[in-house]
Specification:
Length: 96
């Protein structure tokens, strides 16, 4: 009996697709925030994929322009570019 190489490749593909779907649904939950706010809000992080963020208060600023909501971080030291500072932005646009 010959090995079923096609079956093995399909199984790996199916597992990859399943893992990507799980990661996508998890990411959607991570980006959810709720509470009273003005033009800024603070989130107390209870749990995070990055352990350094757990238990830390994170201040965010937001702006609403028409159908767009933009949330940005305070300026912080970049984890990617040593010695540089960075600001993160998330922008959502309402569907009509």
């Amino acid at each position: 009996m010959e090995p079923r190489v096609g079956w093995a490749k399909q199984s790996v593909h199916a597992r990859t697709v399943g893992a990507l779907r799980f990661a996508h649904s998890t990411l959607l939950r991570i980006l959810c925030q709720q509470g009273k706010y003005g033009d800024k809000f603070t989130t107390k992080v209870d749990i995070s994929w990055n352990e350094l963020s757990t238990g830390v208060d994170q201040e965010r600023f937001f702006r609403v322009e028409g159908d767009r909501l933009t949330i940005r971080t305070a300026e912080q030291i970049s984890a990617v570019y040593p010695g540089k500072k960075a600001v993160g932005f998330l922008t959502w646009e309402r569907e009509r």
